[in-house]
Predict the structure of YycC family protein.
Amino acid sequence: MKPLQISPETAVKLAEQLKVPLEHLMHMPQHILLQKLAELAKSTSSDTSESESK
């Protein structure tokens, strides 16, 4: 499996947001990365909607 085709800056930001080591992120299967990004987006949107409703 080849590493993800993303820029170094994007990889660093994703690793920080997903709280995974950079090496794990670069060798993560694409379908798992997409699943984690969807979960992150869902939690971010629910956090935003909760803060707006207060």
About this structure: The CA atoms of residues 34 and 53 lie 28 Å apart. The two ends are 46 Å apart (CA to CA). The first helix runs from residue 8 to 18.
